[in-house]
Amino acid sequence: MDLFDLSGKTAVVIGGSSTLGGVMAEALAAYGAKIALTGRKAENAEPVRQRIESAGGQARSYAIEATSKADLELLLQEVTSWSGGVDILLNCPGVNSAKPFFDIEEEDWDKIMDVNAKSVMIACQVFGKYMVERGRGGSIINLSSVSSTLPLSRVFTYSASKAAVNNMTQFLAREFAPARVRVNAIIPGFFPAVQNRAILSEERVASIMGHTPLGRFGDPSELQGAVVYLASERASGFVTGSLLRVDGGFGSMTI
């Protein structure tokens, strides 16, 4: 028995055009899942789709606004028409802003909360309802952050949005459990990507390394095992409401 076989499953990856979302999507495809990738523009996810198909997998790209319920409902219709169903939802849209607290404007707050938290709520409504009503179980995986549990400087709104993701994850794990729909989150540590390069000054990097027992940044590929594990009902069928850290020990440090 292959604990991680995802053959016959379909995964929707919201934010599949991002660095981390794309790498995790490739892992799900490598274990047999069909992949529906999303981005604000379909072409943004094309490089990921091409890599998946070059490796023998099946994938399609869709242009959606992650904060639009209408877009997500249309996406559900299009993906089920293509693949016959949706079994896995991976929520990993994300935006950040590095501003001191007193410089945060309402527009900054609204944008970050909309993309990072509201989009997760809406996606869980649309796809969670589908999974619950279908009655065949499912796996929802939300991408959180180490800043969701520890106060990190200069990322106040981002941290608040990711704390909301943790709360939603555990709330919905309880709500969806009777239908065997599992809801978990991955808490990644520091994985250099387009989104966070602006705040990785030399001083900040030194601080991060001093707080990471493994003493290095993570490589995006090191998230692949976590996402496949949580996607597979055979491997993690009794796991729901968990916040799985992949952070090099960052969350274990105090002084």
From TrEMBL:
InterPro entries: NAD(P)-bd_dom_sf, Sc_DH/Rdtase_CS, SDR_fam. GO terms for molecular function: oxidoreductase activity, acting on the CH-OH group of donors, NAD or NADP as acceptor. Gene3D superfamilies: NAD(P)-binding Rossmann-like Domain. Pfam families: adh_short_C2. GO terms for biological process: bile acid metabolic process. Keywords: Oxidoreductase. Belongs to the short-chain dehydrogenases/reductases (SDR) family. This is NAD(P)-dependent dehydrogenase (Short-subunit alcohol dehydrogenase family). It comes from Cohnella lupini.
